[in-house]
User: Fold these one by one.
Assistant:
Number 1:
Amino acid sequence: MKQLIVISFAIILTLTSFTFNNGGKLPSATVKNLDGTSINSNTFSNDGKPMIISFWATWCKPCKKELDAINEEYAELQKETGVKLIAISIDDARSSGKVVTDVKSKGWTYEVYIDENQDFKRAMNVNNVPHTFLIDGKGEIVWSHNSYAEGDEEILFENVKKLVKGEKISH
């Protein structure tokens, strides 16, 4: 039984690694901006520069800690690398009203979208939040990270800088 679990885990890990490290493109799903306008996720772009897509929720304390930590260095990182951060709230219709309040109170300057039906979340294989993806200038997923611990944002920043320099990114 243990051997079956280990083999299953290895297969899942390999498939996940293959999907995200070998050019997985952003899937198509409808999300809403903070004004309620619907936007398709496959239109997310940054003029050939990298993007960070971070899935979060208003009820998720580690999510907010991660986005706050990124926010502290975001302006400088954006100036240095041209990176754009897109925060995707997975709050449903009952709690999505809190998203605007949280964004304003935190002073986040990112693009923020709401995935009330969680279609984008499912399309990106996000099982829990926070879940962060790094997208290269061609729109391909090159790195992902699930959960948050203090200092994880530094790894993300280093990966953004490596990506801009054309260096290989490691997990």
Number 2:
Amino acid sequence: MRTTLTIAVIAGILGLGSFSAFADEVKLISVAALHQDKAALAGKEVRVQGKVVKVNNGIMGRNFIHVQDGSGDQNSNDLTITSKQTANVGDQVSVTGRVVVNRDFGSGYSYPLLVEEASVTAKK
């Protein structure tokens, strides 16, 4: 108990948020499962892995990265991610970010599903 409390206090001092968030790793989810459960996952942090199939950098102060992992059909096989980071087409990446549904940026840019403010890590 004392060790857990000490770690929680240190995590708080370092600005790492709550101890439970610090201790729990975000679970990996497939692109198809994310499409299927998007309403339940809205606002939650998720982790996805896959291949970058399209990149549009520097749009509205962010980069738009499309990732596919081989799951889903033509309506649920592509996931759009926004990030300050970027990647190259063909990269295998791990992405962690917040699920957003029905995001409308205006000017015809509307997305039924996005993972926003994502961290993108190229897998080696």
Number 3:
Amino acid sequence: MNIAIFGGSFDPIHTAHVKIVKKAFTKLDISRLIVVPTFINPLKSNYHIAPQKRYKLLLNVFSQLKNVDVSDYEISQKKSVYSLDTVKHLKKQYKASKIYFIIGADNYEQLHLWQGIDELNHLVEFVVATRYGYETPTELKILDVDVNISSTILRNKIDYRYIPAVIKNDLKEILK
């Protein structure tokens, strides 16, 4: 089975995340896509929305999409988890023969900092989702999404036009 893993903080989830997931099914040879929210990103010191709340928002957003799972693996660890550990866990759980690992162009610039990157490079094929203002590597598979929004921008000033409709009210309640 070929799978794709799309990990991140999703703090908050926005329409570009949904577009990445949908685009992956058109561009990659995959049977399933697993969205993996972090408890806390190993390269960050905090989060804005609590992990369990982000997990529930993701479940609501992706519950209607066929062959998309939301994994609570990292959140259930209640600590920062390296992508290498998550990949090994999901490879075993899904009996995956091929794993695509989707990252945003902004994260690609920090890829060399990831724990176990050499081993990770042997286990997965990285796929980069394009983003305005970031260069796109030519040697990797690309998901052309180019939505000019980020979770950081939304944390600084929420713009509900970029929040999936199914969770707008839930997010408004969380951010009160």
Number 4:
Amino acid sequence: MSKSEFALELLDVHKRFGKSEIIRGAQLQVRPGERIAIIGPNGAGKSTLFNLISGRFAPSSGEIRLNGARIDGRKPYQISRLGLSRSFQVSNLFTRLSVFENIRCAVLWSMGYRYAFWKFLADLDDANDRADQVLEMIKLDKKRDVLATNLTYAEARALEIGITIAGGAEVVLLDEPTAGMSKSETKRFIQLIREVTEGKTLLTVEHDMGVVFGLADKIAVLVYGEVIAFDTPEAVRANARVQEAYLGSVLAEQQAAAGVPA
């Protein structure tokens, strides 16, 4: 089978919880290497969409394809092994392990290692080297031996990014990666995301419009479970339907908070 021209496809995806339909015929086609931001009002279904793509939920109907292969209904670990990885809104680290040990845990399976009581992790030179490479990428090499519980908030988020990319996934999902950060931290984090996802396909859920317009090649606007627009940041900004449904009010709120006149 020839390789698909799309890294990720959502084809008429629906998700119902009882009588409530959260995702209503979502359509999305993402090319390899594109950086996509998914935006929308609270309750639009953004986290549900991520959960469907990563396998935490199975769609009620429709198809989800990763590099042409159907992944809807597969388990999260199966999807991960096919080359998709995600981070979460809430930190999910091994807090009693060091920064290095957290990263090494993430690389072991992708490098073919399985549980074996006769092997010492310290002897796995290739896994240890790969973990050190990731630490350098996420700028935490100087925190190598620090317990994850002792990291700052921004450092912990960087470690989560490292765990997400450590396995070599080509499609990366980041769920609100800059939430809770200061402006200076956010600026540095945008650059970090750009660097560590270079050449990869990126989907991120983000509420900060500065992050969205500074990071994304394209923006998908999700409103009431439907993708109402999917285009470049400039085109989405000018889209009248998007302005009416979501973007205009959000930008106005952010400008008002910053003291900028409308």
